[in-house]
């Protein structure tokens, strides 16, 4: 399979996703792709960590590792790969820009390959999944990342290959940062394994985990309500 065949498949897949649009979905995708929408999730994650860690050092370590996930994915995507590859976003590609549905003339100013949204969100999701070890929580965090990825395709900000590579890179970063966390944490805290119906195996209260899950659900509902009432530009 040559490069042109891969590019053609990429465009066909994007056309399928980007082509299924309506006014409500346009507004919903704009809402869900915004970082501001997910501030409640970040606050809920911080709440969960603070409630379940005994010292400021433990809390600071997790927050530093979360920041490291974001820094590594952002630096590699925005600082290294995108300028080097210089692949135009679908909405800016001279061969393709008039064949995609662009919402509110949001075409993006930088390059497309590979997706920082996919790498950032999946890196954070993988790190917290490994940290908490709860199936419902993990499913919700992965779904959150995939929804962010879908918005980028719907809005014609990325090609599918940008998303796939971003997800793969985010997974690697999330696992690598978790290994770093484990190594540092072992030096300062004794190894513990919780066996309880009230806690995950890594010591997170299920009630506090449920808070994060509920915040995610209510954020989705709020995004739908906002999209139903917002003015379309």
Describe this structure in words.
The protein has eight helices and no strands. The chain is globular. The longest helix has 30 residues, at 56-85. It has 233 residues and is mainly alpha-helical. Helix 2 packs across helix 8 (206-229) and helix 4 runs antiparallel to helix 5. The protein has helices spanning 3-19, 23-33, 39-52, 56-85, 116-132, 135-154, 160-188, 206-229. The mean pLDDT is 90. It is 70% helix and 0% strand.
Care to count the β-strands?
Answer: 0
Shape: globular
Tally of alpha and pi helices: 8
**Taking Cα atoms only, what radius of gyration do you get, to the nearest Å?**
19 Å
- Our estimate of the beta-strand percent is under 5%
Largest sheet: none
**Proportion of residues in helical segments:** 55-70%
Which stretches of 5+ consecutive residues score pLDDT under 50?
none
Mean pLDDT: 90
Give the terminus-to-terminus CA distance: 41 Å
Q: Strand pairing plus helix content: what structural class?
A: mainly alpha
Order of SSEs, N→C?
HHHHHHHH
In short:
With 233 residues, the protein is mostly helical. It is built from eight helices and no strands.
Which features does this protein show?
single chain, 233 residues, mainly alpha, 70% helix, 0% strand
């Amino acid at each position: 399979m040559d490069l042109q065949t891969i590019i053609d498949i990429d465009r066909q897949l994007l056309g399928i996703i980007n082509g299924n649009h309506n006014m409500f979905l346009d507004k919903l995708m704009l809402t869900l792709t915004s970082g501001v929408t997910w501030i409640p999730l970040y606050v809920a994650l911080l709440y969960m960590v603070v409630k379940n860690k005994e010292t400021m050092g433990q809390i600071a370590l997790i927050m530093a590792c979360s920041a490291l996930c974001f820094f590594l994915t952002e630096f590699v995507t925005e600082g290294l790969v995108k300028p080097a590859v210089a692949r135009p976003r679908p909405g800016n590609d001279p061969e393709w820009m008039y064949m995609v549905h662009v919402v509110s003339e949001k075409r993006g100013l930088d390059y497309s390959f590979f997706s920082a949204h996919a790498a950032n969100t999946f890196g954070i999701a993988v790190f917290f999944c490994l940290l908490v070890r709860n199936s419902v929580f993990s499913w919700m965090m992965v779904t959150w990342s995939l929804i962010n990825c879908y918005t980028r395709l719907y809005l014609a900000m990325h090609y599918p290959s940008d998303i796939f590579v971003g997800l793969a890179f985010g997974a690697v970063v999330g696992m690598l940062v978790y290994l770093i966390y484990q190594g540092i944490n072992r030096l300062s805290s004794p190894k513990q394994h919780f066996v309880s119906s009230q806690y995950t195996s890594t010591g997170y209260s299920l009630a506090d985990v449920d808070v994060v899950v509920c915040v995610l659900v209510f954020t989705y509902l709020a995004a739908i309500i906002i999209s139903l009432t917002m003015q379309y530009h």
